[in-house]
Design brief:
This protein has 424 residues and is α/β, with parallel strands linked by helices. The chain contains twelve helices and 18 strands.
């Protein structure tokens, strides 16, 4: 039996040996200058026929300038330059094959794991990363899941040899799954969805409250790793992300953390609509992670989820877009495109994935928009990044390094295109 297992594993390794992820790009100090580009700044502005240049990984010119051409400029002839999209609250790099436990590294045993760090488990060789980069996503907040307090996330850039090279902001937030008293679940008797009460609801809430209360009162030199991990949330050096899609739980959780001197980030979906006034009153940042979804309530309109980003953005909230799960995260920009069809302005939709996400993650001084002095983390598309019909990323840079976009999916496309005799 042992020999059979070893044989199967060896077959798996051989069959996947050709599917190598692209080699990370080397550091570059060269100057790159683009002209005649449509520059989407990421803060709501669009510059038609503009110039953008960078060197040493930093943008040093963007806009309109009168300068003698040297011949080194790259004429984009109307193609689009975008800031790198940012994917928050994701399992990207922490899971590979969901049915193979050894490749799933985003969930730990137990309910209370604030000291668990996703960063040291982040796999830079994940095959999901190249497919994600090809859609313009160049940074991600790699995030643990499960339990009541899942652990601590970190922000990474998606072109690195290892997690040490990838890290942009280490240990940026603790992630809390606030429980709800009533849950919809499938009932085999009625063969339908019914509401069931969680008998341990109060106990679960008390566990979360006890952790943060004890962390606040504990000595700064405590050797308790769980308390030590939670302590930076009180001085703002580490954020708290609260996950719930229940209106009552939103109010309960935000009230609690605000009473502890912590302004949380809310990760939710359609429940934000029913607590809009409350969220506006307390100026709570919101990450929407389910735009492509059916109505949460039976009396909700079919386009309720699609209209939500525009509704929250028009109300003046700081709104960012996320994507539940990592397999389909490459479709992030298309969820924004759906929101455009239901009232959100195009450049605002882009901002929800760039500058707004950067602001929520606390990296907006470096990333999120194409402005002088910021990182040259950007990509070029021949068409509209928010439209799957014209979306076509041709080049991408992370911190000024031109990354390799050609990955396994492109190889498969070319392989079978040739087999079937399909013209490029």
């Amino acid at each position: 039996m042992r020999n059979l297992t070893a044989f199967i594993i060896s077959l798996f390794l051989v069959s996947n040996a050709w599917a190598l992820t692209p080699t990370p790009a080397a550091e570059s100090k060269d100057r790159v200058t683009y002209i005649n580009a449509t520059v989407h700044v990421g803060n709501g502005k669009v510059l038609e026929g503009a110039q953008l240049s960078f060197a040493n990984g930093i943008i040093d010119r963007v806009g309109y300038f009168k300068m003698p051409y040297t011949g080194d400029e790259i004429d984009l002839k109307g193609a689009h330059i975008y800031p790198g999209l940012i994917l928050p609250a994701t399992e990207l790099g922490l899971t590979e094959i969901s049915s193979v436990r050894a490749t799933v590294d985003f969930r730990e045993r137990g309910d209370m794991n604030p000291s668990v760090r996703s960063l040291t488990s982040y796999n830079t060789d994940s095959e999901r990363i190249p497919a994600t980069r090809f859609s313009g996503i160049l940074l991600a907040q790699t995030t643990p899941a499960g339990g009541l307090v899942s652990g601590t996330s970190s922000v990474v850039q998606l072109d690195a040899w290892n997690w040490q090279d990838a890290v942009v902001k280490a240990d940026d937030a603790i992630h809390v799954n606030w429980p709800t008293r009533w849950r919809r679940s499938f009932d085999i008797g009625t063969f339908g969805m019914v509401l069931k009460e969680d008998k341990k609801f109060a106990e679960k809430v008390e566990k979360i409250k006890s952790l943060f209360a004890e962390a606040k009162s504990a000595d700064s030199n405590t050797t308790n790793l769980k308390l030590k991990a939670a302590q930076p949330t009180f001085d703002g050096s580490k954020k708290v992300f609260v996950y719930t899609n229940d209106p009552k739980a939103i109010v309960e959780s935000v009230d609690y953390f605000m009473s502890m001197g912590i302004k949380p980030v809310l990760v939710t979906a359609q429940a934000a609509k029913y607590t809009l006034g409350y969220l506006k009153k307390h100026d709570i940042p919101v990450l929407l992670n389910r735009i492509h979804a059916l109505p949460q309530r039976t009396d909700g309109s079919i386009d309720e989820a699609y209209r939500l980003p525009g509704l929250l953005d028009n109300a003046g909230l700081t709104v960012g877009l996320a994507y539940a799960g990592s397999m389909g995260a490459r479709n992030l920009s298309f969820t924004a495109g759906t929101a455009i069809a239901y009232g959100l302005k195009p450049e605002r939709a882009l901002q929800l994935m760039t500058l707004n996400n950067a602001t929520i993650l606390g990296i907006d001084t470096q990333y999120g928009s194409l402005e002088t002095g910021k990182s040259a983390t950007l990509f070029i598309s021949s068409g509209d990044i928010l439209d799957m019909r014209s979306h076509d990323v041709t080049e991408a840079y992370i911190d000024g390094r031109k990354i390799e976009l050609h990955g396994r999916q492109q190889e498969l496309y070319e392989r079978f295109r040739e087999k079937l005799g399909i013209a490029p």
